[in-house]
Structure formats: structure tokens, C-alpha cells
Amino acid sequence: MSDTYVGAIDQGTTGTRFMVFDHDGTVVANAYEKHEQIYPEPGWVEHDAMEIWENTKDVVIKALGKAGVEASQLDAIGITNQRETTIVWDAETGKPVHNAIVWQDRRTTDRVEELQEEDKVEWIREKTGLEADAYFSATKVEWLLSEGDPVKMQRARPQDLQERAQDGELMMGTIDAWLTYNLTGNNITDVSNASRTMLYNINDMEWDDELLEEFGVPESMLPEVRPSSDEDYYGYTDPDGFLEAEVPVAGALGDQQAALFGQTCFDAGDAKNTYGTGSFFLMNTGNEAVSSEHGLLTTVGFQRSGEPVQYALEGSIFITGAAIEWLEDVELIDDPTETAELARSIDSTDGVYMVPAFTGLGAPHWDGRARGTIVGMTRGTRREHIVRATLESIAYQTRDVAEAMQDDSGVELTSLKVDGGAVKNNFLVQLQSDIIQTDIARPQVDETTALGAAYAAGLAVGYWETLDELRDNWQVDREFSPEMDPNKADKLHDRWEDAVDRSLDWAREE
């Protein structure tokens, strides 16, 4: 078995990666390609779904080629993906009728406020575990079917899309379903991604008829929902297709649930935080869907074939790594690796706080009209202060969520597993340990999102037999412990809360 592997497609917000893992969970092949970020209007974010599919094929071929691995050596492929991002495509041609509407997109904020005014927030939360927010897929697909102008839509026929959806001519899915469809011809999603649509009842574990009616989504266009690790497989790649091999597609997980799985957080109370474009703090709550009273989401963590669903509490932070990208955009830094050196060059921000609410605030505030704010600047403020304040904002937002997580779960956070691109920054991880006053463990394999998807698919086909094998693969790269006085951490965080207050409810139309 030493010459076989499991592949993982990791389709993220800014790009697509393909990684191949061996039995030890070691990366043997890796390729990555960015895709275009499309901003048609302020607060709108789109991706070209066809570009994503073409990039997916490219990175799979490139990674296999670089490693000298044949597609026939893949025992399975798993998929992990940016969640909530929504695509509607033609069932006959397989072509999207519009760009994908990205999870960050805020165009349906008015619709969400209608739901709030109609007192439907709690109704939605009880069914889905989610806040009523433009973040999720329901209002995105509703907008596509009812508000989008077909004449302006890429590749769309100039006729009513709602009518076409009712007639069974359209399919809808999140990115995992889109990739599975293109790989296998089947429109299938997993329970973790379904739970992020705001159309799926996480108690009954099925599409919810009342929510489908509320948002005008015909059930016929929705994907079939399967376990995250599926021994029945989602399908096979086409032996006459780009891979020239018949490989089982056997698992999928939304990116944050995939990181939970890749970090081997298989038991109730296990927690991880992934630092990517945004940051996502998840705690496994076992077979119980724990309701949040502090602005967190109750979501499906994962499900293996024939086993009960594992639930999770989640704190979704919309902008963390993207705030560092913004520093590049405005030319305060040339490269993200500069941030640690610049931040270390000063002792503090001198009272400067940066709230990166570029697309509103997620957990625990849930304010779609909050906007990015820098407060506390003086004539002596330099770029070093703004860079350090940006890094600190990541740590403060994580503390907001950690405190809510502890209050909801009743479990004291004693250690936290971290992953994602930003955790390569030792300054940031140490700062995070100081601000939340807990130990932090960084694994050797930090691409745990892709690893989780590989584990899900590999378990389904028997490449790995037990969860204990996966636990044995997990190795610590470095551990961080708090070095800051707890009272100082509390004072800094208190002032952060004042800065957050300044950012709230800003984006109002004149």
C-alpha cells in the first residue's frame, strides 16, 4: 500500500490547492493557483465558477506531475471548500448562470433586516443553528433567482430564473457540490456544507420545506446530502476525463469542519482555530447540538457513514488574514512576512486599535453594517502601529469568540489547536496566547483543512481504518504559553471592545 495515496482538493476563498497525502499524513504533492476576486459593487464579492473548475483541474495535474504520482495511485479524493459561497448552474449544459456569490458578499443585507423585522431570526436559528445573515447561502440563491437581471448575468438565458428553477432546469450548490458535479456528474453535498446554507434543518437532518418556501428555492435544484466520509462514495472521476483514471470521490467537508477533522478534534470539548481569510473557531460538542446564547453558530461538525452526526459550536470571524492582505493593498507592507518584524519594532500600538470590519462583523456581534475602523491615532502614529494593531485585532476577535465559546459550552478552554497560513507568524501566535491567556499548539502539518478532507475520503475507502491512526499522525510543531500579565490582557481587550463599538452600524444609506 506504500505506493497509493489520498488526494484532497482544497478550494478556498482566494485560490485552489491540491494536496496528496500518504499513510502518515505527510504531504507528497502540492500545487496552488489563485483566482480572481470580483467586486461588482461595494460590499459585493463574486468568483467565476468556471475559472475555479479550470484551476482545480490545473492544480491536480500539476501536483501529481511534480510528485511523479499517477492518478491511478490515488485511492480516493476528498474535497474541502470555502463554505456558503453559492453557485446556480444549468442542469443541461452544466454552465453557471451567474458568477458564484461569495460568503463575504453583503448584497442581501436588506433582506436579512426584513427577516429581523418579521421576527424570524429565532425561527431560523432553531431550525438551522445559524444567525439570520447574508453570510449564508439562502439569501444568495434567493437573490440569484429573483433579483438578478438575467440579461446581465454571464452565460444566462434571458428568461426568468425562478421559473426555470421550478421547472427543474437549474441546479444549486456550494463549492463542494459544484466540484463533485464536475468530477462525477452527481450533485451531492455533505452534511457540514448543507448545514451552512440556512436551508437545512440540523435537527431533522434534511432540507427544510418551510425555509425553502421562505426563500423561494425549489428542492429539485438542491444537492443530495450525504455523510462527510461516505462509504457509498459520491461517485467516480471519468476515466476519459482530465485525470484519465476512475478515482472515488468519497468525502467532503466545509473548510472549517475539515480543519476540525484534520486537527483530530474527534471528541466533545476538542477545539481549533483556523486563521485564513477569516478565522473560524470550532469546538466539537459531540452528538448534541448545543444552542448558543452568546452569538455563536450551532453547526454540523462531521458525519461518518453509519454513525451519528457530530455537532460543533462555531465562532465565525469574517476578516483576519484578509486584514493583512489589506495592509498590502494600501502599501503599508510589501509582504505579509514583514508584519512580525514591524510589530516587534515597537512596544505597543500607542493606543491605536484597528477593527477590520470590511464586510461587517461576524460572531459574536453579527452586524452586517459594521465597517472597518482605525481609532486612537495621533500625529505620532506610524505604519508600525497600524500593522501591530492589525495583528492584535486578530487576537482580540479570537478572544471575543473564545469567551462566548466557554460561556455556551461550560467548558474552560485550557489549550487551543491552531492552523492556517497566519500561524506561521510566531509573533501572532504568541500574541494570541497572551490575549486569550491559554496554551496554543501548532501542528507540524499546518494545512489541516486539506488533511481533514483527505482523512474523510481515506476512511471511507479503507485507506485508514481507525481514528486512532489519525491521532497518531498528529504531531506538535511548537507550543506557546501566555507571557503577558492577565490584568494587562484584560485591559487591552476592554479597550478593544470600545473600538468595536465605534465600528457598529456604520454602513447606512443616506
Automatic annotation (TrEMBL):
Keywords assigned by UniProt, alphabetized: ATP-binding, Glycerol metabolism, Kinase, Nucleotide-binding, Transferase
Pathway noted in the entry: Polyol metabolism; glycerol degradation via glycerol kinase pathway; sn-glycerol 3-phosphate from glycerol: step 1/1
Domain Carbohydrate kinase FGGY N-terminal: 5-262
Pfam entry (one): FGGY_C
CDD domains: ASKHA_NBD_FGGY_GK
Keyword Membrane: no
Keyword Transferase appears in the UniProt entry: yes
Gene Ontology terms: cellular component: cytosol
Gene3D superfamilies: 3.30.420.40
Catalytic activity from the UniProt record: glycerol + ATP = sn-glycerol 3-phosphate + ADP + H(+)
Gene Ontology MF annotations: ATP binding; glycerol kinase activity
Carbohydrate kinase FGGY C-terminal domain sequence ranges: 272-460
Binding locations of ADP: 13, 17, 277, 321, 421, 425
Residues given in the record as sn-glycerol 3-phosphate binding sites: 13, 83-84, 135, 255
E.C. number: 2.7.1.30
Positions annotated to bind ATP: 13-14, 277, 321, 421
Enzyme class name: transferase
Binding positions (glycerol): 83-84, 135, 255-256
Gene Ontology biological process terms, A to Z: glycerol catabolic process; glycerol-3-phosphate metabolic process
PROSITE patterns, sorted: FGGY_KINASES_2
Biological function: Key enzyme in the regulation of glycerol uptake and metabolism. Catalyzes the phosphorylation of glycerol to yield sn-glycerol 3-phosphate.
Family affiliation: Belongs to the FGGY kinase family.
Listed PANTHER family: GLYCEROL KINASE (PTHR10196:SF69), SUGAR KINASE (PTHR10196)
Listed name of the protein: Glycerol kinase
